[in-house]
Design a protein that fits this description.
This protein has seven helices and 13 strands. By secondary structure, the protein is α/β, with parallel strands linked by helices. It has a single domain, classed as Spore Coat Polysaccharide Biosynthesis Protein SpsA, Chain A, CATH 3.90.550. Strand 8 and strand 9 form a beta hairpin.
Length: 302
């Protein structure tokens, strides 16, 4: 098996959650959600992990994960900050947040030289998903623009406590992605799943819609395309206060250009995550159940 890298998006400040949810304890034993993704990825065969974080809490991460992961996997930390962009672009001094998941992923370009996956630091993906994607990652030619992803059924990814953002996936008969559209406001209303468009109108979505939870498999060529795409984005929108550059923007660009394709792998796992503080008790209960049923050991890092 080739050596692959796990990249964890963990630079968010948790505005809807009300704190740094990436490091919040989600079990009686003090585990974070990230701990379970790390455990599953290492078990599946990943040899390196890169945390994309912020300078303001880098030491907090190192204090936890340097010790837990010592001798188990190679660890790198990179920081996403507003000012970490190519020279020559104007940025509003009033901007307070970095530029989104695409910008975050660019931070790894000097520390990753092989195939890699990208996941969110506040989502629980399931053991099976990591085992599935590492096989697909093995099959990706490192010099190609081909990609893979794990998709989830929309009904399994909702929060009972408010709206969520998901990437709506469109696939062909070969389960290859043809388009992905970022839906920034999805919630269940009176038993029906609805999404809100830019005008505030509500449209119904099918429960079995395949959605992205940011579980992507890429080759280094994706980073090249990402860098070019980010420059184009900045040329048009760098002075905007809240504009974001998403991972799927460049995925769609590669598909449309015909340079590469995306194999869509699916999981029937139910999402666990902490978009809102009210989500936390549900996650804690489920995580403790998984440990009691010996799906995970009591001490993940002993």
């Amino acid at each position: 098996m080739k050596e692959h890298t796990l990249v964890i998006l963990a630079a968010g400040m948790g505005s809807r959650y009300g704190g740094l949810k990436q490091l919040d304890k989600m079990s009686d034993d003090g585990d974070t959600i990230i701990d379970f993704s790390l455990f599953d990825a290492i078990e599946a065969g990943f040899k390196k992990v890169v945390f994309i974080i912020r300078e303001s809490f880098k030491e907090d991460f190192k204090k936890i994960y340097d010790e837990r992961l010592k001798g188990k996997v190679q660890v790198e930390y990179v920081c996403q900050e507003i000012e970490k962009i190519p020279a020559g672009y104007k940025v509003s001094p009033e901007r307070v947040k970095p530029w989104g998941t695409g910008h975050a992923t660019l931070m790894i370009k000097d520390v990753v030289d092989g195939n890699f996956i990208v996941i969110n630091g506040d989502d629980f993906y399931s053991k099976g998903a990591f085992k599935t994607i590492i096989k697909a990652l093995d099959a990706l030619d490192v010099d190609s623009y081909n990609m893979c992803m794990v998709g989830y059924n929309l009904k399994n990814t909702l929060s009972d406590n408010g709206y969520v953002s998901r990437g709506e996936c469109f696939v062909n008969e070969n389960m290859e992605l043809t388009n992905i559209i970022e839906r920034t406001h999805i919630e269940e209303i009176d038993g029906v799943i609805k999404r809100q468009d830019e005008a505030g109108n509500l449209e119904t979505m099918a429960e079995d819609t395949i959605v992205s939870m940011n579980f992507w498999g890429f080759t280094p060529k994706y980073l090249e395309a990402l860098e070019e795409g980010f420059k184009s984005f900045l040329a048009e929108r760098s002075t905007e206060l809240k504009s974001e550059f998403y991972i799927p923007t460049v995925v769609n660009s590669i598909i449309e250009s015909g340079k590469g394709s995306v194999k869509v792998l699916t999981s029937d796992a139910k999402w666990m995550g902490v978009t809102y503080a009210e989500d936390r008790p549900v996650v804690v209960g489920e995580v403790n159940r998984l440990k009691k049923e010996n799906i995970y050991p009591r001490n993940l890092w002993q």
